[in-house]
Amino acid sequence: MRNKFLIAALSFIMIIFVTACGNSAQKVEQENNSAQSATKTDDTTKSTAGKKILVVYFSRTGENYEVGNISRGNTQIVAEMIATKVGADTFEIKPVKPYPENYKECTEVAKAEKEADARPAIVGDVENFDDYDVIFFGYPNWWSDMPMIMYTFMENHNFKDKTVIPFCTSSSEYFIGKEEIQQYAKGSTVLDGLGIRGKRCQENPESVRQDVDKWLAGLGIGN
Question: What's the confidence (pLDDT) of residue 221?
Fold first, then answer.
């Protein structure tokens, strides 16, 4: 009887010991995972802290899809929200040859440029582009691609070691352009982009601001 009691007691002690070790190991693993997550967030925040930021964008006024004639482009509205939030400089890409005010005519020109892989000329340039560390890159979605003038800009500048953060406006919330930017803004690190429906920029800009703030927070950027 004594032997049976001793064996049972030892078995019980072993169960407690193994359980305690398992819980301890699980706790250490959870703490390590938490530390890794915190480090990742901190690293993202540090990637923009104290660095010079520029918002480069192309935006079109005139007759636009769903909103009629506008004096302030959809992409410009988003670009200015970002610049205000992160304290960035801005540069608006303007074509030497303006696009048609009429929406249908503009889409035809945009399609022809895409088919020809054109590189429309840009008015002026960014002063001291090399001084900027982080580039927000904004544009409308034209024929499921960036406007060709965005490629002009990328090919005219050295993006090596810069962080590029893209955003676009379109007839939906769909984002396009990350793969193209990775290909043409050579040597840069491209973060996840944001897609915004252009109509919202005109009719409900506050909802757009909330999405912009949430997106930036997810990247570890902004206040």
Answer: 87
